[in-house]
Amino acid sequence: MNTARKPYPSDISDEEWSLIVPYLLLMKEDAEQRHHDLRDLLNGLRYMIRYGIAWRTMPNDLPPWTAVYQQSRRWMEAGCFEAVVHDLRAVLRLAAGKQAEPTTAIIDSRTLRSTPESGSRAGYDGAKRKNGSKLHMAVDTLGHLLALHVTPANRDDRGEVGPLTEAIQQATDGSVELAWADQGYTGSKAAKAAEEQDITLEIVRLPRAKRGFVLLPRRWIVERSFAWATRCRRLVKDYERCASTLAAMHTIAGFMLKNAASLLCQSA
To answer: How many whole angstroms separate alpha carbon 261 and alpha carbon 13?
Structure first.
């Protein structure tokens, strides 16, 4: 760890770094053109996501924002963070006594308000009364990320079942057989789209005698994952010009907030 500065709470731990660094080496560690330590660059990215700062306001004791931004873009475009999440999910499932690949998923969407940066691709969600983007996400029964993508907020959830279930099967080698969803996914269109990917879509309905807040079985798992993401200030609204960047930052938050590497080391 760089000892020239005091560590930030968002800095990656030694245990996490030892597991993640192999995924981030797009070139040799001693490459001549490297001017900044990879760990410092990753800490800069984590700081930005956790505390919601603009790129240009990167603290002076971290690498320059241009270096952090450029390296972050390289990692995102190479799919490094998706690979980290995929492998950590499999190992943590095995440590919990489950199969490496899940057979069940939980899907849902979350609407994020737009900002001047993301407004050009925003849509209006009449149900949530928000103008912004919609994050469609799938997790396993432990809350580990399986797949996600971003659309304008006016997209119907039912219409995104096909792309989401296809991404689920790609991430799990086709192991998922059942997906739970809320009543926003009712109808033959969503069920047929899931069936085309060999997934049975099961709707978890509210009890008829509902009175006040009711915790829905199974469905709360994906809601908890959304709640974890809101601990990162950068993810509370859609501050990104590109939808792919917003999706990548949610992927990064998936192993930032749950301290997956630390849990793995404890179970080893």
So the answer is: 9
Which phi and psi (to 5°) does residue 181 adopt? -150, 165
Evaluate whether 21 touches 38 at the Cβ level (below 8 Å): yes
Is the distance from CB of 196 to CB of 81 less than 8 angstroms?
no
Give the tokens for residue 215. 């915790």
Contact 188, 159 (CB under 8 A): no
| Nearest alpha carbon to residue 197 among 220, 172, 219, 218 | 172
What burial letters (b/e) apply to 99-127, b meaning 16+ CB within 10 Å?
Answer: eebbebbbbbbbbbbbeeebeebbbebee
In this prediction the pTM is 0.87
> CB neighbours of 237 closer than 8 A, spacing ≥ 6?
112, 113, 114, 115, 132
pLDDT tens digits along 207-262 = 654 555 555 667 888 998 999 899 999 999 999 999 999 999 999 998 876 555 45
